Amino acid sequence: MQHKHQASSTLPGDRAATRASCADDFDSEAITVDVAQQRILSRITPLAETEQMALYQSLHRVLATGITSTMNVPAHTNSAMDGYALSGDDLPESTPRPYHVVGTAYAGRPFKGHCTAGQCVRIMTGAVMPEGTDTVVMQEHVDSISDSEIRIYQGHNKYQNVRNAGEDIGEGSSVLSRGRCIQAADLGVMASIGVAEIDVYRKPRIAFFSTGDELRPVGDALGAGELYDSNRYSLHGMLGQLNVETVDLGIVEDNLNDLRETIGTASRKADLIITTGGVSVGEADFVKQVVEEMGEIHLWKIAMKPGLPVTFGRVGNAAIIGMPGNPVSVMTTINQFVLPAIHRLSGRPDYRPLTIQVVCQSKLKKRAGRFEYQRGILSYDETGQLNVSATGKQGSGILTSMSRANCLILLDENCDGIDAGDLVTVQPFNTYL
Ligand code: AMP
Ligand code: MG
Fold first, then answer.
1. CA 20 to chain centre
2. Is 26 in contact with 299 (CB distance < 8 Å)?
3. Residues 164-207: pLDDT tens digits?
4. Is the shortest distance between the CB of 275 and ligand 1 below 6 Å?
5. In angstroms, what is the span from residue 329 Cα to ligand 1's centroid?
6. How far apart are CA 115 and CA 119, in angstroms?
7. Ligand 1 in contact with 212 (CB < 6 A)?
8. Is 66 in the pocket of ligand 1 (CB under 6 A)?
9. Ligand 1 centroid from CA 276, angstroms
10. Nearest CA to ligand 1 atom 17
């Protein structure tokens, strides 16, 4: 199990948690992951502006107005099979009986006549049930006697093989709620009730930039002690999977004026600003100072690994989250704190990533007292059982661990290590294996 031993002393995160529940101002101690997630969400106001758009273009947008059906689906009671339609009261009781075939009903071309006792109508899947019929006998279950006569055997049931009008969606019923993030099937469902245009919330605008004197854009040559800015690429990739507008503000040097200017610009353009680097207590870590100066800070330390120093606050109308520069910290923090915030901004209150419990095949080292996100690889063993193993080296600079991983292994504050064979909770982020 994940909780191998309960930590006996009070956890630093728990202490902070009790105090944080009533305090709005930032806490100088690290707060727990749970408290941090709640606090961030409580400071994010969902966007109110809406726009109308064509249904066809709306995949993964968030509905601003719920959808109620003005019609039945199916619109008419129809056949679920190719076969013969007749009245259920006229089915044979004890011996097979012949029936006269009085016409044919096709999908989209109803049979116009009436069907009476001793008669049936040849019917195709999806064709409207002819007047006088309520039951369909499958084609494979009848004998053909001549072009206009068939034989039906006993053993059938009244109403079989018929789809009732409104059986999928009833007229007047609520189909999709406000706040629904539109999925592929939803597009089909809305099309099935004839909806061509829908109201959605506007896309959140997200500005991001990297900070660090040592950073160079890919394409440039590297000088001594310099490295390529990889964070903007990972970030661009993660944001690219969401329905957001992004503003990439590039690389900003570690000095107060450049940071003030960039954060100021970003706050006028975006609903959320994401920065990487420069939030710890190193001499060149100015992000927190600038946010404090230009706006307010709601939290700045979360008891987790990787990614302990996280600055979250507000500048003007924009929320801002400043993450440490380590590439793995960035991706983990985005995953755990920024994605929920973006979904809340988008008007989607129901966002909760999937977590599952699986057997861990690796021994994992972990200290109690803080939350850890280790990179895991979910795979199937020979018996078809899903399990997880660690990606190997877990340092916050080992970005290839994130690239090899397809899930985060969530080890909570109480956990002080995992033995091979223990159950762990994982959060998949690539759902194909
Ligand atoms: P910082 O949070 O600024 O102290 O950065 C922590 C570590 O992450 C340092 O080793 C940085 O060089 C590295 N780092 C910061 N920003 C980036 C970036 N955009 N891309 C890759 N590595 C970075
Ligand atoms: Mg830095």
1. 29
2. yes
3. 999 999 999 999 999 999 999 999 999 999 999 999 999 999 99
4. no
5. 10
6. 6
7. yes
8. no
9. 7
10. 325
Q: What is the pLDDT of residues 141-156, one digit of tens each?
A: 999 999 999 999 999 9
Do you know the residue count of the chain? Answer: 433
From residue 242, give the alpha-carbon distance in Å to each of 238, 239, 279, 340. 7, 5, 26, 12
Which residue, chain included where needed, has tokens 């970003």?
266
Distances (CA, A) of 213 to 60, 278, 392, 397, 399: 38, 10, 30, 18, 20
Find the angle CA(209)-CA(210)-CA(212) to the nearest 5 degrees: 145
Cβ pair 339, 53 in contact under 8 A: no
pTM of structure: 0.86
Q: Ligand 1 pocket test: which of 218, 227, 248 has the largest number of ligand atoms within 8 Å of its C-beta?
A: 227
Cβ count near 124 (within 10 Å): 17
325 lines ligand 1 (CB under 6 A): yes
Instruction: Decide: 245 and 206 in contact? Cβ < 8 Å.
Output: yes
Is residue 433 scored above 60 in pLDDT?
no
DSSP state of 39: H
Q: Is 132 in the pocket of ligand 1 (CB under 6 A)?
A: no
| Closest ligand to the CA of 322 | 1
Ligand 1 atom with the smallest distance to the CA of 323 is 2
Cα(347) to centroid(ligand 1), Å: 32
Q: Does ligand 1 come within 6 angstroms of the Cβ of 79?
A: no
- What's the CA gap between 353 and 238, in Å, rounded? 15
* Cα(34) to centroid(ligand 2), Å: 27
Distance, C-alpha 49 to centroid of its chain: 22
Helices (H), 250-286: 256-269
The residues that bridge with 160 in the sheet, in sequence order, are none
Q: Kindly report, residue by residue over 34-46, the tens digit of the pLDDT.
A: 999 999 999 999 9
- Tokens 């877990």 belong to 394
d(CA 272, CA 312): 10
Q: Does the C-beta of 396 come closer than 6 Å to ligand 1? A: no
Q: What is the pLDDT of residues 374-413, one digit of tens each?
A: 999 999 999 999 999 999 887 888 899 899 999 999 999 9
Of 231, 334, 402, which is best to mutate to test ligand 1, by the most ligand atoms within 8 angstroms of its C-beta?
A: 231
Ligand 1 contact via 179 beta carbon (within 6 Å): no
Using alpha carbons, select from 365, 352, 360 the residue that is nearest to residue 377.
Answer: 360
Residue 76, both tokens: 């008419």
